[in-house]
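Support request, priority: normal
Reporter: lab tech (M.K.)
Component: structure prediction queue

Hi team, I submitted a job for Transcription factor domain-containing protein from Exophiala aquamarina CBS 119918 yesterday, and the status page still shows it as pending. I've pasted the exact input below so you can check whether something in the sequence is tripping the parser. The sequence length should be 259 residues. Please let me know if I need to resubmit or if it's stuck on your end.
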Amino acid sequence: MPSTAASWKATSEAQWRDSPRTVEYYFRDLLSSFFKGSERWQQLNPLRLPLRTWQLSWELTSESTLDPLSSKAPLAFNGIELFRTAYMRLLPNFNPDRGFFLGESHSGGTRNGYLRRSRYLTIAILYAAHALSIPVRLGVELIARTYIPFWSIEHSLCSFDCATLLNIWLKGLVITVHTNGMDGLKKSEKWLLSILTDIIKETSFAQALGDVEGEASRSEQMSKTVVHLWARIFSGAHVYEIDNVVKARFDRLAGLSQD
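Reply from support: The job had stalled in the queue. We restarted it manually and it finished. Here are the results:
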């Protein structure tokens, strides 16, 4: 991050000068440092390398936090949303449909309905699940009805990508389970399913999972539920105009999941 949160929150020169100082770098030098690594890693992961470097740097920063209510937010907290978005967009088969977001198509949010199973996908799904767990932990109804100061444009755009990714991934699991049963799922996929199940059980949508029988049907219901859950989170009034756009797309995506 460019500096500490205290520097950005300072309301006077005196406060700014008294805030903790960080080592200052030229932007070009700092950007270049993100791409330094082994030649083999650069060949295999030319864009994941800077993300991994940023992640390690973020974890070592004293102000890094995943708590939206922390006094160290929102700089560090918003940064992780940008990281999630970048990581998801690097998935080779995840292509969010810009036309759907602009209201120009009815594709269901993506131009490709298939996600190639890989450890990178597993990590991306984990990030998406964690993004959903934050408003659930704070209270879906509270988020829906109350202005939350930590919510930013980054959160809104990242939320839509997370919902779309989870929806597509869960639909893919439905096909796998229908064909090969639960034995067709990897251990990591079963683990992620349990995480999402626990998240949903903390909401008013928990009953929806209890009303279905069979693992394939449960995964299919979960694919619908995560979209409806995000739609509910965005159902209230928002400060940013982009939130109204995101809300409309969530409503549309939720409607498509019912078809």
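The chain has a mean pLDDT of 78. The radius of gyration is 20 Å. Let us know if anything else looks off. Ticket resolved.
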